[in-house]
Amino acid sequence: KTTLAKTLAQTINCGFTRIQFTPDTLPSDVTGLSIYNMQTGTFEYVKGGIMNNIILADEVNRTSPKTQASLLEAMGEKQVTVDGVTYPLESPFMVIATQNPIDYMGTYNLPEAQLDRFMMKISIGYPQGGEEKQMAERFLNNQLGQTLEAVVERETIIKMQKEVEEVRVNADIISYVIKLVQETRKDNNLSLGASPRATLSLIRASQALAYLEGRDYCIPDDILKLLQPVIAHRLILSPEARMSQVMTEKILKNIISKIPVPVLTNL
Questions:
Q1: What is the spatial distance between Cα 236 and Cα 238, in angstroms, rounded to a whole number?
Q2: Minimal CA–CA distance to 172: which of 220, 128, 216?
Q3: Where in the chain does DSSP place strands (E)?
């Protein structure tokens, strides 16, 4: 995971920080802190780990809820506030987080507000046979930690992000997304459905997918492809659903079957 995040940062010529979360990690380790300079008689801001482009929040659920909460403003507003002074974050900015299974000793469940800040949750899984062979060969040739050349500049990434925002989203697509999200709030298997932030994240992710596929407009298939990774981690199962081992994947499939897919005639 660290290699993946670091490689991403190198290939787009961006800065990278790995924050190892532990039970004694402090909020100031994330956001930074103000230190009094006796020579100048003023407080100086010392940057925290969050002040970079690509952030790997490793084992984020091992730290206290207070420290977890220090990520909220950064992920939601792209800024941090320390001692009443607000500092903008780098651009582009992205947080990649990993977590241990919740039954591990010394873990804290991420609060709903924190989970809602993450656009997607994905499972990397194990590498395929050929990929694992390549890893072994690179390990034997001491190539695992090599520095990679950037293939694109960060200014280009920022430009692409702005172009993604210009991808057209038909009114029928917006209505379809809203219906899907609202249906999660009615499902008896869920004690907490998806928030309005989920609606916005699903629309933006669909714009990005359309852009990567060379389209300047979204289609219903974009929504369906991304519904699971964008929505599932925001849902809280009811006690009855947990006892019955109902999976969020099954719930979302059931919701999809209820909502008619729009037929677009004017793209």
A1: 7
A2: 220
A3: 16-20, 32-37, 42-47, 54-58, 79-82, 85-88, 94-97, 190-192, 236-237
Pick the CATH number of 166-258 from 1.10.3720.10, 3.90.1150.10, 3.40.50.10420, 1.10.8.80: 1.10.8.80
* CA-to-CA separations, 199 to 126, 161, 202, 250, 263, in angstroms, rounded: 31, 19, 5, 20, 20
**Domain boundary assignment for the chain:** 2-140, 166-258
**Residue 99 pLDDT class (50, 70, 90 cuts):** confident
Give the helix/strand (H/E) hosting 236: strand 236-237
C-alpha to C-alpha distance for 164 and 150, rounded to whole angstroms: 21
Two tokens, residue 105: 């000793």
Helix (H, G, I), strand (E, B) or coil at 45: strand
Q: Which residue shows structure tokens 């992000």?
A: 161
The pLDDT tens digits for 226-254 are: 999 999 999 999 999 988 888 999 999 99
HEC readout, 91-126 = CCCEEEECCCCCCCCCCCCCCHHHHCCCCCCCCCCC
Q: Is 40 helix (H, G, I), strand (E, B) or coil?
A: coil
Strand partners, 20: 58
CATH class of the 2-140 domain in this structure = alpha beta
State if pTM tops 0.85.
yes
